[in-house]
Specification:
Layout: H1 26-29, E1 60-61, E2 69-76, E3 86-94, E4 104-109, H2 117-123, H3 130-135, E5 136-141, H4 158-165, H5 176-196, H6 198-201, H7 206-219, E6 225-230, H8 232-243, E7 248-254, H9 259-263, H10 275-279, H11 281-297, H12 311-327, H13 335-345, H14 352-364, H15 389-399, H16 408-420, H17 422-429, E8 457-464, H18 470-479, E9 483-491, H19 502-514, E10 523-525
Parallel strand pairs: 4-5, 4-6, 6-7, 7-8, 8-9, 9-10
Antiparallel strand pairs: 1-2, 2-3, 3-5
Helix pairs in contact: 7-8, 11-12, 11-16, 11-17, 12-13, 13-17, 16-17
Length: 532
Amino acid sequence: MSAPGPTAGRRRLRAAVLAAALACSALLTGPGPATAHSAPPPPAPPSPSPSVTVPKLDWSPCKPGSPWECATAKVPLDHAAPAGRTIDLAVVRRQATDPARRIGTLFVNPGGPGGPGTVQVPQNYDAFPKELRERFDIVSWDPRGIGSSTAVNCFDTAEDAKAWAARPPGGFPVGAQERKAWIDAYADLGKLCQKRDPDLLRHVSTADTARDLDLLRRSVGDPQLNYLGVSYGTILGATYANLFPGSVRAMVLDSNIAPRAWTAAGPQDDPRTTTLLRMGSDRTAAATLDRFLTLCGSAPAARCAFSAGSPGATREKFDLLMQRLRERPIGPWTYGKTVADTVNSLYIVDPGWTALAGRLQELSQGRVPPPPVYPPPPPVAQPNPYLGDEQAAAVWCADSPNPRDPAAYQGLEEDSVRRAGDAGRYWTWAAEPCATWPARAAAGYDGPWNTPTAHPVLVIGTRYDPSTPYTGAQAMARELADARLLTNDGYGHTALFNNGSSCISAYESRYFVDGTLPPPGTVCRADKVPFS
């Protein structure tokens, strides 16, 4: 899950965090997916209101010679008032490479909130298993409020946005002066956004996007939905499954947010802690960092540049570096920025962990690390859309309860540090922008989560995930009416795209194609242990 606050790699729920979810109806491939366990018959798909117009997708190449096609879907701003204002959704498609064996469309949400599917899915297309690319059109979109769709943008010019982005300290605030700068910056951002387009702010909820997704499904002519959602995309998928239970053919939810952590169990107006701390992001980041340092320290420096020769010595080396950075930054590398970069760099094992070890080693030698090398942009119309902090905040803060008093976050930070060390500071302050966010979702969804679906859902959880803990996948599998848990005994954020497990890929592909679920209790392992 990405956070509104500024970090060096914040969009990493971002560009490489994806996974694949497919489902196929009996009309497309014969038998539907097998049932995980008996459940009451699912309700029929909801009857669409005759006043809701299904968008027409006029596909054309995103760029001359590009294999990706682009289209724009017009949907109601307020699904309860379909005759009112409309907004645009940017959509991309890559057609199945084996048309004769095509099953249908696979919709993919790459996470966030705030992940632009029109960029991230093309960027990661080659990571989809070959059979899925052959047999499904791969479709994604920028959710409402994000990227190239009708977007939340609270600034008049790019220069104004850049000037604001320079105000909050990198990663998280350290000390009273930085805390004030952070809190004031995000309070001002909320005020700017409220003045700009208050109606849009109230209609970018997860439930709004789930209703958009059902319109997109109908636009491509699929009788039921094939869906892959990762990270934030898991709560979107769970919301869809409970709003449109009869429309689920197959759904894979990878790196899960526990539904009750997203919605909170207490009062909406005064939650005691944040979304991310309810999820346990601080604890799982600390466990993943510890695993990184253990594996690095068990390897020679030729394989892990930051290795000090043993796990214990490597942990001591990391702690000493953090202490030094708190006292004196190295160029732009402050303590807060370095912790944020460390947590974000744990998302993707290859090349993320190796590159992180190299940066930490440079810093330990008192040198500024070289700038990162980014992959080339994908061949789409807008490969670099505006993705300001306000876009993630607009979805997250309006949808999921967080403490409304900025002064509460210092105490939450210290509590988290006792549990999770440095990573606790990062994940605590990531939610503070919600304290002063001005809007609440007009049509959110907070349960129930156990409405029986037409076909079972496949839930995937990774043991060492720096953002969404394995317990989130366990909770998702328990709370959905009909779900099977597949465990990835591996590393990083999401199993399929970022952290190679051919075992996971095989089970996912089989589920998407013919509905076969893995046996109960199945555990997959990574193909390669980091630094081995």
